[in-house]
């Protein structure tokens, strides 16, 4: 089915007459109205949000590659005494493994590389590699009982961000842009920034479908800000074209596009109109967004020395806070470097050093500015890592941990989650969930719930059926909702 045919089939009688009465004049009038009157009303259907929201916006700190819950978040004091003992077959056989270790002849247990210690008034046990996150332990909700079917990176990321392991469905940020609309007049609703460890140890790619809009109109896809060259490709005007000339040109193009839209109803024509207008506004707003000269020295320093390097995780964290202030609905930071199959003993500490301080600084910065209450900060990866060794334990650069989908950890802060708690429990080997399991679809349903959305009611009709982020699954995890 073509997009045009789909648009015609979805058009109701009310929409037909409504569009017939809509022209450039009405579009111009709407741009003059107070945006605050419409912020949060949404575009994904009537009655959005479905109930009062706890959060207005989301900052997703995506830790690509699968951070090791064994080493960082899921405290198992008994593992130290079992160092290099064979993991019981009864435990190991209960989980699906990747082909990299499914045929290993030995599965020796590797305890956490560094000791755990207690942080905050909550006494939360975290690795000593995470002193920054430890300093916000009383603000975070640590979920230790996540589980997923995925055991490879791209399907795992795609599953978490779109509800399906197969590319083609709308990403999480696109669903929110579609359902809740924008909070900003001059910045996109959904912005993406990417970074990686400086050693470039992680070979995983950031595919565009991680922030794509799938089968919903492409005006809801994420806009990626680049760290080198132009922040957004083709955003700048050609030499000799001033702003008034550009405005006149866009008005003429908009008139043609609106005429085309009324005649054919193609949602991609609507996308072109929105993209032209947003690009014009971003020409003025993006330079100010990226200019950190007005930030205080204390704030700059709190994010760590790497904040001065364009494209770094630290700098992107600071930019995420600036976007939250300016009304960006969904900020997706994607940082690679956690896929530590052979270099766990060296790279884990480097990765923690690069990400721990800026992550904590972001949460503290939001809290100090009164933004954390209605901003949901999420720190997550696609799965966890095995308690057993992959590779040769005698070689410092020859061993690590394999992927594990049956048990892993993530945490959230602000935006209506219970602070200072740990939810769920795994077995003695951090290998299988034994209490209060949270599936990927449950996490997605809960996230939408915090934003005032019933995950079963935010849908989009495509190829004859109603699709939703959580597919036909998912339940809200009420134990983590404040």
Would you kindly provide a brief summary of this structure?
By secondary structure, the protein is of the alpha/beta class. It has 14 helices and 19 strands.
CATH class: Alpha Beta
The percent of residues in helical segments reads 25-40%
Q: N-to-C terminal Cα separation, in Å?
A: 44 Å
Please count the beta strands (DSSP E, at least 2 residues each). Answer: 19
Structural class: alpha/beta
CATH-defined architecture: 3-Layer(aba) Sandwich
What is the helix tally? 14
Proportion of β residues? 15-25%
Principal-axis shape: globular
Instruction: Indicate the low-confidence ranges by residue numbers.
Output: 16-42
Radius of gyration over C-alpha positions, nearest whole angstrom: 23 Å
Query: Biggest sheet, in brief?
Result: 9 strands, mixed
Mean pLDDT: 87
Total domain modules: 1
Q: Any descriptors?
A:
482 residues, alpha/beta, Alkaline Phosphatase, subunit A, 9-stranded mixed β-sheet, two-stranded antiparallel ribbon, 14 helices, 33% helix, globular
Outline the structure in words.
By secondary structure, this protein is of the alpha/beta class. The protein has a single domain (3-31, 55-74, 131-341, 353-382, 401-415, 442-480), classed as Alkaline Phosphatase, subunit A, CATH 3.40.720. Helix content is 33%, strand content 16%. The protein has helices at 3-10, 13-20, 24-32, 69-72, 89-92, 131-135, 153-162, 172-180, 243-264, 267-290, 297-302, 313-325, 344-368, 440-450; strands spanning 57-64, 116-119, 124-127, 140-147, 190-196, 223-224, 330-336, 375-380, 384-385, 390-391, 399-400, 403-404, 408-413, 421-423, 425-426, 433-435, 438-439, 460-462, 465-467. Strands 1, 4, 5, 6, 7, 8, 13, 14 and 17 form a nine-stranded mixed beta sheet that branches. Helix 9 (243-264) runs antiparallel to helix 10 (267-290) and helix 12 (313-325) runs parallel beside helix 13 (344-368). The protein is globular, with a radius of gyration of 23 Å. Residues 16-42 have low confidence and may be disordered.
């Amino acid at each position: 089915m073509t997009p045009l045919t789909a648009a015609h089939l979805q058009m109701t009688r009310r929409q037909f007459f409504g569009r017939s009465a809509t022209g450039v004049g009405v579009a111009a009038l709407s741009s003059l109205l107070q945006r605050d009157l419409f912020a949060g009303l949404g575009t994904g259907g009537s009655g959005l949000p479905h109930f009062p929201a706890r959060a207005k916006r989301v900052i997703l700190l995506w830790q690509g590659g699968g951070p090791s819950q064994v080493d960082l978040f899921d405290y198992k004091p008994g593992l130290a005494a079992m160092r290099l003992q064979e993991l019981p077959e009864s435990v190991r056989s209960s989980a699906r493994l990747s082909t990299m270790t499914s045929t290993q002849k030995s599965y020796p247990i590797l305890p956490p590389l560094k000791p755990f210690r207690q942080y905050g008034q909550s006494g939360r046990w975290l690795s000593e590699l995470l002193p920054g996150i430890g300093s916000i332990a009383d603000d975070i909700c640590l979920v230790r009982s996540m589980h997923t079917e995925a055991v490879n990176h791209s399907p795992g990321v795609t599953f978490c961000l779109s509800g399906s392991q197969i590319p083609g469905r709308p990403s999480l940020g696109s669903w929110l842009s579609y359902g809740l609309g924008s909070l900003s007049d001059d910045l996109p609703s959904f912005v993406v920034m990417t970074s990686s460890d400086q050693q470039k140890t992680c070979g995983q790619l950031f595919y565009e479908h991680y922030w794509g809009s799938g089968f919903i109109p492409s005006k809801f896809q994420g806009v990626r800000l680049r760290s080198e060259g132009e922040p957004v490709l083709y955003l700048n005007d050609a030499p000799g074209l001033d702003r008034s000339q550009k405005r006149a040109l866009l008005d003429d193009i908009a008139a043609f596009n609106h005429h085309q839209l009324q005649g054919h109803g193609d949602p991609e024509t609507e996308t072109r109109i929105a993209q032209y207008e947003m690009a014009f506004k971003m020409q003025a707003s993006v330079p100010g967004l990226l200019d950190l000269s007005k930030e205080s020295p204390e704030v700059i320093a709190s994010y760590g020395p790497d904040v001065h390097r364009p494209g770094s995780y630290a700098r992107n964290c600071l930019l995420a806070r600036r976007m939250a202030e300016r009304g960006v609905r969904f900020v997706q930071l994607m940082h690679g470097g956690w896929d530590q199959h052979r270099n766990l003993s060296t790279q884990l500490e480097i990765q923690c050093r690069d990400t721990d301080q800026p992550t904590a600084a972001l949460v503290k910065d939001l809290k100090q500015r009164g933004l954390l209450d209605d901003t949901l900060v999420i720190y997550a990866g696609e799965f966890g890592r095995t308690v057993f060794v992959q590779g040769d334990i005698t070689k410092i650069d020859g061993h690590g941990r394999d992927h594990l989908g049956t048990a892993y950890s993530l945490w959230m802060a602000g935006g209506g989650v219970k602070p200072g708690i740990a939810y769920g429990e795994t077995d003695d080997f951090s290998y299988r969930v034994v209490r209060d399991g949270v599936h990927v679809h449950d996490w997605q349903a809960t996230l939408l719930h915090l934003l005032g959305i019933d995950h079963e009611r935010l849908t989009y009709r495509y190829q004859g059926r109603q699709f939703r982020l959580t597919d036909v699954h998912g339940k809200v995890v009420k134990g983590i909702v404040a």
